[in-house]
Amino acid sequence: MSEGLAALGHEVHVVTYHIGRDDEELPFAIHRIRNVPTYHKLSPGPSYQKLFLLDILLARKLLSVVKAQKIDVIHAHHYEGLLAGLFVSRLTGVPVVFDVHTLLATELPHYKLGLPVGVLRWLGLRLDYWLPFKPDQIVTVTNTVRDRLIDEIGVPAAKVTTVYTGIESEHFAAQLLTSQAPTPRMLVYAGNLAAYQGIDLMLGSFRKVLDQRPDTFLKIITDSKLAAYEKLIASLRLRDHIIVETGDYFHLPIKLHSAMIALNPRVDCDGLPVKLLNYMATGRAIVSFAGSAEILEHEQTGLVVPSGDTQAFASAIVKLLDDQDLARRLGMAAQTRVQEFFVWKSQVRLLERVYEDVLGRT
């Protein structure tokens, strides 16, 4: 997003946490909070140290950048970014655009914060009904999030615009030029292994696939630990058919291209799983549960099955394993779709209009 905005001539300043790499030339400035040596967490979700230390440092850093750089608009990502943005906006008068990735009532119960799930869901719901009314404008990563904000929470429709997450298609295309042909009967999943990802459902579906096609393998590309699923893997007798690899963003295209079929087992997602965009950009045939497949069209850019139906998920995988022409056709259509629409150079044009509207009103 920042690169896309910079390419249109905007001056962009990214304010973020202390973790990250600063060893490459970028068309925007990065401003990090001071180093917190006790915090190394890269997985999604809140923690008490992040909420009560890192996010306070983030707000302070944002305030100094807004004042020093004479910022026109604060683009706040997710609820933590919004809290920092609202604090700075109150002190400076700079308008805030809230980028909603997902709703907290859906996401918060999946994280372990030492509180009962019911309490976390109640807290998420309260924040969902309070904070979205505070910013000057809202952009959402999917129409699903937009519709829920309008229909369930009551945010005025004129205040919410869908701006889909984009992807760096050139990065994926360049990597694929040097990659080898995919391994037959290889499935792939790329992402973290949090409970909300539906990993247990994917493993159960894979067992059903193996019962029909015993020469199939599942490659899991993740930086998470598989320990939480070891007992399930053992009980399903999957160990000899699972390959686990780590993979950073720069090597992800080649790793994805090594498999025929990509899996998205998440059953519920208001936002947009970026793994879907990565799968599409590499031309993989995708099998996904419907609850997280807003951007897929069944039998056109992937196979979409009812959420939680492991038998249907497995049957869709077997269908693609047995029909490689169909797998290639779906993969090519998905790749074309992402190159035509889900790229930042088209999505940032929408952002420009949102910014112009906010600045016109303020």
Q: What's a concise summary of this model?
A:
This protein is an alpha/beta fold and 362 residues long.
Account of the 3D structure:
The protein is of the alpha/beta class. The protein has 2 domains: 2-166 and 343-361, 3-Layer(aba) Sandwich (Rossmann fold); 169-340, Glycogen Phosphorylase B (Rossmann fold, 3-Layer(aba) Sandwich), CATH 3.40.50. 45% of the residues lie in helices and 14% in strands. The chain contains 14 helices and 12 strands. A 6-stranded parallel sheet has the order 9-8-7-10-11-12, sandwiched between helices. Helix 6 (143-153) links the parallel strand 5 and strand 6 (160-162). 37% of the residues are buried. The mean pLDDT is 93.
List keywords for this structure.
45% helix; 14 helices; 362 residues; alpha/beta; Rossmann fold; 6-stranded parallel sheet
Q: How far from one another are the termini?
A: 23 Å
- CATH homology-level superfamily of the largest domain: Glycogen Phosphorylase B
Please report the total strand number as a whole number: 12
Radius of gyration: 21 Å
Instruction: Work out the helix count.
Output: 14
Question: What's the topology here?
Answer:
Layout: H1 2-7, E1 13-16, E2 29-32, H2 48-69, E3 74-77, H3 78-92, E4 96-100, H4 104-107, H5 117-130, E5 137-140, H6 143-153, E6 160-162, H7 169-176, E7 186-190, H8 199-212, E8 217-221, H9 230-235, E9 242-245, H10 252-257, E10 261-264, H11 274-281, E11 285-289, E12 303-305, H12 310-322, H13 324-340, H14 344-361
Parallel strand pairs: 1-2, 3-4, 4-5, 5-6, 7-8, 7-10, 8-9, 10-11, 11-12
Helix pairs in contact: 2-3, 8-12, 11-13
